[in-house]
Amino acid sequence: MTPPLQKSDFEALRRAYLFSGLQDDEYLEAIGHATTVQLAPGQLLFSQGDPVNAIYWVAEGIVKLFRASPQGDEKVIELVGANRLFAEAVLFMGGQFPINAAAQTQARLVAINGREFKAWLGQDVSRCFRLMSGMSARMHKLINEIDRLTLMKGADRLLQYLLDHSDPDETGRQKVELEAPKQIIASRIGVKPETLSRLLHKLADQGYIEIQGSTLFMNDAEELRGVRLET
Question: How would you classify the pairing of strands 100-103 and 44-46?
Answer without folding.
Answer: antiparallel
